[in-house]
Amino acid sequence: MQLPSALIQSLQGLPGFDEQRFVDIHNANTSLTSIRLNPAGSEVILQSFKDRGINSTPIPWAGNGCYLSERPSFTFDPLFHAGTYYVQEASSMFIEQALQQSVDVSKPLRVLDLCAAPGGKSTHLQSLLSAESLLVSNEVIRQRVNILKDNIIKWGSSNVVVTNNDPRDFSKLKGYFDVIVVDAPCSGSGLFRRDEEAINEWSENNVVLCSQRQQRILADVLPALKEGGGLIYSTCSYSRQEDEDITDWLTTEFPLSNIRLNVQHDWNISEAATPLGNSGYRFWPHLAKGEGFFLAAFRLNDGDVYKNKNKQVVKPATKQLLPSVSLWANVAGNELIQVNDKVYAWPAVLFEDFNLLLQHLRIIYSGTLLGELAHKKLIPDHALAMSKMVAETISRTELELSEAIAYLQKNTIENTGWTTGWQLAAYSKQALGWMNVLSNRINNYYPKELRILKQKINN
Ligand code: SAM
Q1: Hey, how many other C-beta atoms are within 10 angstroms of the C-beta on 63?
Q2: Residue 62 Cβ contacting ligand 1 at under 6 Å
Q3: What pLDDT score was predicted for residue 440?
Q4: Tens-digit pLDDT profile for residues 117-131
Q5: pLDDT tens digits for 302-345?
Q6: Fewer CB within 10 Å, N side or C side of the chain?
Q7: Percentage of residues in the chain with pLDDT exceeding 90?
C-alpha cells in the first residue's frame, strides 16, 4: 500500500503518530471485524456466533460493541437481517463516550444526527437515548436516504424521524436540539486500510476542500443547537485541517466550549491538544484497536431556546384506526396517524415534535409504519415486523437456517406442515418479516428491495 507522502509529512508531530508503525500497520494486511449489538436481542446473537466458533471480545469504549475473531458472511446470517446487530467500525463507536459524558442521557433529549447515512451513528445513538427522546436522522444526499431509512426500520426504533435536508434547513429550528452530531464528510484517510482505492482519491487539495465544506456544514446547522446543548464533531480523516483546525475554528467563531472527555489509558486513544488548548481524540490504527478516527465535543454557552408556537398539522386518528390496528399491534403509548392509506404510530410523547418537524423538514420516515389500509383492513408493513409493537397474539413460525435464507432471498419455501394464515417468519426467535401461509404455498412479504440477491455464499 503506497500511502501519500504529503499525508505522511502532514502528520509529523501529531500526538500518537509514529511514521514507521503507521506505515507498517497499513501494510500488515490485517483486518478487524466489529459489530454493535441491538440491545433488544443481544444474548441471542453472541450465542449464535459462539455456536459458529466465532469468539467476541468487548470494545472497551462501547457497551454493546464487540470485536469478532473472524468475519462471517453477514449476508447469509438471518440475524443480521433481523436487525440484532450492526456491522460497524470500532473507533467510530467512541461517540458513545462523547454523548454520555456531555449530556444526561436519562433525560428526554432532542438529538440531530446531521450526516447520518448509512446509519451507524444513528442506530448507536438510538440505543443510547431514552425512549422519550427524539432522534432526527438526516441525510442530504437523496440516493443515500433509503439505506438510512432501511437501517432505522431494521433497528426497530419508533422515536426516529428520517429527513432529507440540507444543513441550512435546520436553521429554521433555532435552539431546538439538545445535541447535534456532525459526522462530517471528509477526505477519508482514516479508512485507507479498508479501502485502498480511497488512496487514489486523496489529495492535499481535497483536504482543503473538505475542511471548507465542514465549516459550511457546521456554521449552517449551529443555530439549531440549544443554549447549553452539546455538539459532537467527528471525521475519519487524519488531517489536522479537518480535525484540530476545525476544533479551534469552532471555539473561535462560536460561543462553544470544548469538552474534555475521560479516556482510559489502556484504550490507546491519543488526546490531541490543539494550538488553542482544546482537546480532540485521535484513533491511530497502530495504537487503538480500530481505524483512523477523530472526535471533539463542545457545549454551546450562549444561544436560543426553541419555543413551539406551531399549530398541529396532523391530527391523531387513534380512535378510528384502533379496531383495525389492534389485531396486529400493541400501540399503547402511541398516537396513530393516517397518511393516504398508510397508518403510522408516533410515540405520544413526541407527537408535538413530529408535527413540528413535518412543517419544516422533508420527512422520509417517522415513527413506525404499521401498515396500509385496504377495505378498512390493515395489511401489516415490514416495519411493524421489525418493531417491538407486534401484538402478542400474532403467531410466529421458527424457520431452519436454509428456510430463513430462502425466505430472505424470496425463493420458494415448502409448507412443511405450518399452520395457515398471516404470521411472522422468525429465526432464533427474531422476526425476519411477514408471510401468509396458504395450504399449498407461502406468500412471502419480505420487501423485494431488501432481499438477498446472491444465491450462494461464494457466488
Ligand atoms: N454518520 C454515518 C454513519 O455513522 O453511518 C456516516 C456519515 S459519512 C462520514 C458523511 C455523510 O455526510 C455522508 O452520508 C454524506 O452523504 C453526507 N454529506 C455529504 N455532503 C454533505 C453536506 N454538504 N452536508 C451534509 N452532509 C453531507
Answers
A1: 16
A2: no
A3: 83
A4: 999 999 999 999 999
A5: 999 998 777 788 999 999 999 999 999 999 999 999 999 999 99
A6: C
A7: 91
Q: Which grid coordinates belong to 205?
A: 487539495
Domains of the chain, start order: 94-300 (3.40.50.150), 318-386 (no CATH), 396-450 (2.30.130)
Rounded to an integer, the average pLDDT of 344-349 is 98
What's the pLDDT at 152? 98
Res. 149 pLDDT band, cuts 50 70 90: very high
Query: Strand order in 85-87's β-sheet?
Result: 56-58, 65-68, 33-37, 85-87
Does the C-beta of 148 come closer than 6 Å to ligand 1?
Answer: no
Q: What is the pLDDT of residue 41?
A: 67
**For ligand 1, atom 17, which residue shows the shortest CA distance?**
115
Distance 184 CA to ligand 1 centre (A): 6
Cell matching residue 176: 431546538
- 162 CA to centre of ligand 1 in angstroms: 14
Q: How far is CA 286 from CA 1, 26, 456, in A?
A: 15, 9, 36
User: Of 86, 89, 93, 140, which is best to mutate to test ligand 1, by the most ligand atoms within 8 angstroms of its C-beta?
Assistant: 140
In 102-185, the DSSP E strands lie at 110-113, 134-138, 160-163, 177-183
Span 16-53, pLDDT tens digits: 999 999 999 999 988 899 999 999 767 788 899 999 99
Amino acid at position 387, single letter: S
| Residue keyed to cell 454493546 | 64
pTM for the whole structure:
0.97
Peptide bond into 323 cis (omega under 30): no
Other residues' Cβ atoms within 10 Å of the Cβ of residue 39: 12
| 119 Cβ inside 6 Å of ligand 1 | yes
- Report residue 146 as a C-alpha cell: 433509503
- Quickly count: other Cβ atoms within 10 Å of residue 281's Cβ: 25
Nearest-CA residue for ligand 1 atom 26 is 115
pLDDT at 458: 65
Q: Is the CB of 183 under 6 A from ligand 1?
A: yes
Q: Give the angle 207-211-213 at the CA atoms, nearest 5°.
A: 115
Longest dimension (CA), the chain: 72
- Residue showing cell 446531521: 114
Paired with 259 in beta bridges are: 297
Q: 404-409: long-range contacts at Cβ-Cβ below 8 A with a sequence spacing of 24 or more?
A: 404/78, 404/432, 405/76, 405/78, 405/452, 407/432, 407/433, 407/435, 407/444, 407/446, 408/78, 408/81, 408/432, 408/446, 408/450, 408/451, 408/452, 409/451, 409/452, 409/453, 409/455
- The verdict on the CB of residue 209 being under 6 Å from ligand 1 is no
